[in-house]
């Protein structure tokens, strides 16, 4: 079973990897964006970490809803509302259970990813975070490590694609040949799950 501590570890691991990888995320966002993705997410996950240290949220659902709300209010850009929706929807789907199973988390994350797709209008293949998140959710049935690998492969597979959503889509064919920053950060989020499970 996955308890509130697991979800706190997940958010903390993601905050740490976003800190480590912020420069890389911003560098990826420079040829096909406006070079702010790393700093956007760093600001967001720093706020998530600070809030979770103060707040007594003590169920998996409450922790994710709180984290999502922080991302929406601090990240800005396209990715803030999208990541915020992902975590809030996932949290809401978990309800107020004190512990959840891996299957329940997989189902809730699927609802979260559907929320992202509804809000942003992106489908797999559009060169966005959806290209890492959808394969990750599909692979979750085989465990967290499989989900991490699927998300990383999904992010890498965005390189040859032409962007059809978000700022990168303004570049048309010139968006080809660059890995999508949001898919890359989504792979960090999913890797955080695997780290939380290993701890
Ligand atoms: P902005 O583009 O506003 O500067 P960020 O740089 O923080 O925001 O995030 C860019 C990332 O957001 C992209 O790499 C992409 O993965 C994701 N993204 C942008 N638009 C969408 C969308 N409509 N649906 C899903 N993801 C999107
Ligand atoms: Mg940007």
UniProtKB/TrEMBL annotation:
Task: Show where the DhaL domain sits.
Answer: 5-195
| Entry-linked InterPro entries | DhaK_L_YcgS (IPR012737), DhaL_dom (IPR004007), DhaL_dom_sf (IPR036117), Dihydroxyacetone_Kinase (IPR050861)
Q: Name one GO biological process term.
A: glycerol catabolic process
Q: Identify the keywords attached in UniProt to this record, alphabetized.
A: Kinase, Transferase
Is Kinase there in the keyword field? yes
Question: Does the keyword Kinase feature in the UniProt annotation?
Answer: yes
Please list the GO terms describing molecular function.
glycerone kinase activity
Which SUPFAM superfamilies does the UniProt record give?
Answer: DhaL-like
GO CC terms = cytosol
- The name on file for this protein is Dihydroxyacetone kinase subunit L
The organism of origin for this protein: Streptomyces spiralis
């Amino acid at each position: 079973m996955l308890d509130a501590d697991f979800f706190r570890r997940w958010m903390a691991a993601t905050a740490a990897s976003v800190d480590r990888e912020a420069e890389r995320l911003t560098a990826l966002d420079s040829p096909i964006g406006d070079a702010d993705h790393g700093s956007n997410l760093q600001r967001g996950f720093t706020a998530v970490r600070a809030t979770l240290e103060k707040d007594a949220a003590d169920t998996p659902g409450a922790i994710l809803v709180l984290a999502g709300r922080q991302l929406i209010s601090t990240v800005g850009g396209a990715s803030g509302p999208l990541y915020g929706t992902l975590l809030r929807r996932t949290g809401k789907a978990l309800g107020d259970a004190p512990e959840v199973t891996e299957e329940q988390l997989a189902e809730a994350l699927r609802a979260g990813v559907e929320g992202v797709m509804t809000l942003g209008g992106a489908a797999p293949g559009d060169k966005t975070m959806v290209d890492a998140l959808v394969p990750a959710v599909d692979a979750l049935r085989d465990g967290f490590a499989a989900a991490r690998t699927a998300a990383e492969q999904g992010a890498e597979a965005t390189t040859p694609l032409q962007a059809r959503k978000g700022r990168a889509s303004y570049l048309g064919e010139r968006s080809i040949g660059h890995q999508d920053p949001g898919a890359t950060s989504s792979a960090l989020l999913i890797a955080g799950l695997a780290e939380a499970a290993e701890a």
